[in-house]
Design brief:
The protein is mostly helical. It is built from five helices and two strands. It has a two-stranded parallel sheet. Helix 1 runs antiparallel to helix 2 (23-35). The longest helix is centred in the N-terminal third of the chain and has 17 residues, at 2-18.
């Protein structure tokens, strides 16, 4: 998990170094980072984002070959920073990315104490 974070961090640093005006160039750095991750990725993008074109994010997800699945979610009415759009669809999308697991059911047994058998 730490290795995945480092890989993604390096990709983000390279994106920042490239500068926001070169978004098309940034895709190669992000793609390289995503290809090395060993965890599932959930990409959330608002359709009202005027900062990063949604088409670029869709293309990135579609064209990137990864070890684990990439899930792309388009949220209607959401802008780039997620702070001024509809809350309910965003929360539902975030919650859908959380893996639900069944609680562990173990049958607990008391150990047999052989020395008590003779008493």
């Amino acid at each position: 998990m730490e290795e995945d974070f480092e890989i993604l961090s390096r990709g983000v640093e390279q994106l920042e170094d490239a500068g926001i005006s070169h978004q098309a160039e940034q895709l190669k750095y992000m793609r390289a980072a995503l290809e090395h991750l060993s965890v599932p990725v959930h990409v959330i993008h608002g359709d009202m984002d005027d900062f990063a074109p949604i088409e670029m994010a869709e293309r990135l997800v579609k064209e990137t070959r990864t070890r684990r699945p990439i899930r792309f979610e388009r949220i209607r009415g959401l802008k780039h920073f997620f702070n001024d759009g509809p809350v309910e669809p965003l929360l539902a999308c975030l919650e859908s990315g959380i893996t639900k697991t069944e609680p562990m059911r173990q049958r607990l047994r008391m150990p047999r104490l052989g020395w008590l058998a003779g008493a």
